[in-house]
């Protein structure tokens, strides 16, 4: 076995021309198309082809070929990021054959291959009496993908991302070398934004197995302003808040890790599998409500969502349920059931409905000490431009300061602000309802609060050198280190060219009405929907209808 391995390695090293090519070809799956899209169809990538390697030598061959030929390669996860962080014009690499998990004998760490689903990992760990301290709320993503964007859960007293739990990782670098990233290098690449190489496997820190005991309950929104929230967060292993401005309420969720021997097999029904009929109904409803600019109706949906977060409402599964499907609140269950959601089919899956149900999320990390000020600022915007958030309201999650250079919470305690908005059927030509508030809130976070936009969410505009260099103090150093591992830029793409080299966005110049989807900030009326105008107020830009009667006139003439 060892001999075989050595021989294969030797052959690869010698670069025995034809053999190398044919082996590399074999790894390319004829069933996987080169073109791929993000979960919500915001981003489409046109790679030449998609490879499906089975072992680390395949990974090395793919990279070495690209290195030799000046080509590009990108590890492809489960495409739950909706930024062009996922794209390559060269070879996409699928990791479905990298699914091994090995818990080490001392039960202190686990080595996981890159393609393992987060949900499967967490479940497997629970079944074996161990766990990881935190992970993102979506279980459908891959381990390598979660580390790619520094995807987070919510806690101040536990590490809040899987990136923070990495003890070492093995990557195939841009020269095709298999390298173990540990020690000093590790902090640089914990959050790897797709450039460290092809991630082969990763070793994560374990804790003893646990269950989550959690409770959701409504509090008056005034609690967001009087320091109560900041005082509560550090008392819980899991803590998050959903703010529903239209009902003047926030729903708090406080959770504690308890022994896995504790009774309770409850589960969280935050994201559930979709019934195609419901999806059709949702697409139709959101389109008609938005086309009619019926803010009142969207706010009614927000109010219904608020109730469903802590009690049973008709037509929705209970927020937590026991195996009999009955409401449980407080609830107790295993982490994979209580903290990470999977769905099949998911409401956004393209095949579920003729017109896909498309969503956008804004999500950014802001220094926690500015929480109150931030809530006030958002309230001011909503007072001016009424808007409602029918899915999760405005969601606050928390992270302790992280050492990961590219982490959203690098060096600072962080509150993550997130909201989801439904798309229009014709997203490129029709504006979302509440576009003024959506655009002003996003820009306020960045302009006033040093927000770090989540690497896998937000509009294309937020992935520029200008935005990023202002908020990631280690950006330049990170770029240099990445280059030392990938001297020919095998893992580079449009995304890295913009972020590290200030290249202009290729996309923004080709898309018409680019402000509607935050591909640009508007600079002229034609960047907005037909009939809309682009308003400029200091450094803020937003699209609106002139007849909406918001104080536009001055702003409009001043802009042009
Ligand atoms: C419904 C939903 C809920 C979500 N909930 C959360 C949440 O709770 N918290 C949160 O922070 N985020 C959340 N996200 C965002 C999501 O967790 C991140 O975008 C995550 O990075 C996606 O992982 P993925 O496996 O889909 O990877 P992808 O999106 O496919 O890729 C992410 C990055 O990792 C790279 N990559 C993937 N595999 C490899 C590999 N083997 N080698 C090298 N590079 C690789 C890719 O090139 C890319 O740069 C959510 C997204 C959705 C759609
Ligand atoms: C959550 O907070 C409430 C109110 O302070 C408290 O009664 C409850 O015990 C907490 N629940 C958990 C699971 O920690």
UniProtKB/TrEMBL annotation:
Pfam families per the UniProt record, alphabetical: ALO, FAD_binding_4
InterPro entries for the chain: ALO_C, FAD-bd_PCMH, FAD-bd_PCMH-like_sf, FAD-bd_PCMH_sub1, FAD-bd_PCMH_sub2, FAD_lactone_oxidase-like, Oxid_FAD_bind_N, Vanillyl_alc_oxidase_C-sub2
PROSITE patterns: FAD_PCMH
Organism phylogeny: Eukaryota, Fungi, Fungi incertae sedis, Zoopagomycota, Entomophthoromycotina
Protein name: D-arabinono-1,4-lactone oxidase
Gene3D superfamilies from the UniProt entry: 3.30.465.10, 3.30.70.2520, Uridine Diphospho-n-acetylenolpyruvylglucosamine Reductase, domain 2 (3.30.43.10), Vanillyl-alcohol Oxidase, Chain A, domain 4 (1.10.45.10)
Highest taxon listed in the record's lineage: Eukaryota
SUPFAM superfamilies associated with the record: FAD-binding/transporter-associated domain-like (SSF56176)
Signal sequence annotation: 1-24
Domain FAD-binding PCMH-type: 43-209
Listed GO MF terms: D-arabinono-1,4-lactone oxidase activity; FAD binding
Pathway in which the depicted protein is active: Cofactor biosynthesis; D-erythroascorbate biosynthesis; dehydro-D-arabinono-1,4-lactone from D-arabinose: step 2/2
One cellular component term from this protein's GO annotations in UniProt: membrane
Enzyme nomenclature, EC number: 1.1.3.37
UniProt KW keywords: Oxidoreductase, Signal
